[in-house]
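Hi W., the flavin-adenine dinucleotide complex you wanted:
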Amino acid sequence: MTITATLEVFRCAPGGVDGRFESYDVTVHDNATVLDAIEAVWANHDRSLVFRHACHHASCGSCGVLVNGSEVLPCIVDLADALRQRSPVRVEPLRNLPLAGDLVVDVTGFFERMLASTMSITRTAEDALPLDADDDGGRSQAVSVPDGLARFNRFENCVECGICISACPTMATDERFRGPAMLAALGRARAESADPQQREHLLDLADGEHGVWRCHSSWECTQRCPQQVDPAESIMEQRREILRRRFRRRVR
Amino acid sequence: MSRARVIVIGAGSTGAATAHDLALRGVDVIVVERGEVASGTTGRNHCLLHSGGRYCVNDEEAGIECIDENLTLRRIMPDLLELNDGLFVATDEADRAYMDTFLEACARCHIPARELSRAQALEAEPFLTPDVLAAVQVPDGVFEPFRFCLAFLATARANGAQVRTFTEVTDLATSDGFVSGVEVVDRRTGRSETLGADLVINAGGPWAEHLASMADVDVPVSPTPGVMVTVGRRLANMVINRCNVPSDGDIVVPQRTTSIIGTTSWSVDDPDHIPIPSDHVDRMMTRGRSLIPEVASTPIRGVMAVARPLISKPGVDARDVSRTFECFDHKADGIEGFVTISGGKTTTARAMAEKVSDIVCGKLGSTAECRTSEVPLVSYRRFYL
Ligand SMILES: Cc1cc2nc3c(=O)[nH]c(=O)nc-3n(C[C@H](O)[C@H](O)[C@H](O)COP(=O)(O)OP(=O)(O)OC[C@H]3O[C@@H](n4cnc5c(N)ncnc54)[C@H](O)[C@@H]3O)c2cc1C
Ligand code: SF4
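Structure:
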């Protein structure tokens, strides 16, 4: 079984030059995602289309775009659902990042910030199995670490997709804003660190006029994040921590 | 004397590791990749850092390669791996009988293996099927193919390599039985150019045959896709494998907060865009459920399919083709300056790179030795800086 859809895809040269929408009719298998449809445009219609993609299961974070005006990872959006929302399906690059061609944005500044956050992509400090106490019949209590394994580790929730950067209204007004992803990463790095000096340093990085205080609390990042990272809550938590620290310093 | 220049076509795990190996040996490397890094087979694979357990019974060579490389990758990219081991699970008497063969094969391939009782297995993995009779724990792991490639390429760049993504090879520059470079088009600007080189390496995965045909040589790669289904919840700490002869849907790889069930195997002619057969998706869910019943009530998050670059051997079924790799020096086909590396796994990418780089350095008259098993990789994030 197949479905046929029209895609309106944003096309441009590097720097956003010659920006326009082009329409393509694609026929794809009926369980196709929006990313499958974008790939079909490239495979069957226009080999010059550039888009980023790798894992097709929301783990690499490279394929983020706007579908019908909202930030998503198109690898986990059913084409049929997108079509029900709007036909033709509209696909555009993420906002608040420089345009590098068609659907690709320049992620240099984004990865500079992620590197500066020092967050490792593997986390070790908590349960590997994220179980909800109410839906696992109490089995989470039974999880024990087998001999020979010090503890379980797993990859961080954040896939560095840049969706929160695109969705953030503050990012649009201050390009030096560290942004939700980096601020959340600083929070995660601090949670994983046992070194008091490093923890202080990470909090310093989150502080300041382009740091957690710049956020206007629109909560768009948390709403759009495909990985339940909840950057907004992390920003609020770090604000509280910075205030506690200021208070401690004053009374000392 | 100026440094020898080598062009690597393809930034999947094979091309990425090869660029790193050659750059470390002082070769001037340019990688050309038509899409994003890992946008071919590598990005969409099952993410399993093999212990060798999957292959050791039928393919000892592949089993040994996997465990050796598994241990090496733990040294050079420790923060890019989920290191929680794997379980080979017996759920019926046939699996139980296979377990003895499996344990012997692990011993032959020096894969550390430990038997767990039913109770121990269920204690470590509460979502495992209650049908489990016994299990064997082996050092499987989980990687992220995209960041795996970025880390190799970022390190290659730190050592002087150039990496050009969205740059498609449209032809090979050949004259008098020599490949002297590649013709490329930058997909972002539409600009074409010819890049000259002393030698070109074809690391085109399932597209290797097509690329080799540009120099009129035949590389017998048969694109053999597999379907994987990702469900939106982590249902195991370790990788869960069925303890039996490899077949469809017998591995559940937990990754981050999800579980990936795979895989199947069939043949296609064109690996560019692989339609996903619905019955393969259903089969993954059924097979996955027989290992972890909770799969049935977990929503599907993503479905993907991608083609293995298996080296075809006449008359041999795809599942039985060895998962080890092969390197073709096309001198044997009357073409100089052109080498193809194909087959293998992402787990063994570093070893594949070592082998092809040895051959390439020999051809270029360099005596530099491979150092990739000792040198830690730089942060994958540096790829974009
Ligand atoms: C379903 C499935 C599951 C797998 N699971 C695992 C696993 O769990 N663990 C594991 O270790 N291995 C696994 N493998 C095997 C592994 O994924 C492959 O062996 C490996 O990814 C091959 O890498 P490669 O670099 O050779 O090919 P590719 O990753 O395909 O790289 C080739 C690159 O060449 C590029 N290219 C093609 N044509 C051109 C051109 N004209 N110009 C420029 N660039 C071009 C492509 O875009 C592509 O990026 C799996 C394979 C499959 C199919
Ligand atoms: S915090 Fe969420 S939205 Fe932002 S980069 Fe990470 S995964 Fe993407």
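The first strand of chain A starts at residue 2 and ends at 11.

W.
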